[in-house]
Design a protein that fits this description.
- The protein is about 70% helix and about 0% strand.
- By secondary structure, it is mainly alpha-helical.
Length: about 100
Amino acid sequence: MRVAPWRWALALCMLTILVLSLMPPSPSMPTTGWDKSNHALGFAALAVLSHWAWPGRTVFALAGLLAYGGLIEVLQSFTPSRYAEFGDLFADGAGLAL
């Protein structure tokens, strides 16, 4: 299996999640209807992509993605329309565990 396309897909998904996490919320944004499930679903998708992009390095990839979730929360604390929540980071971790 070629991993390069999965690495590109992972990078694109990470960028998409970052943009959606930092832009002002609007009714037209994609949602599951509950903020915590949005986090879990997004990070579950990142976990699957990272497993395919970095086979054999799952533990390191998941740790990096959890740190990425923490970075997003820190960045959200600097935006006027978003705020950081420990519960969001917990939901990120739950998605990674799925």
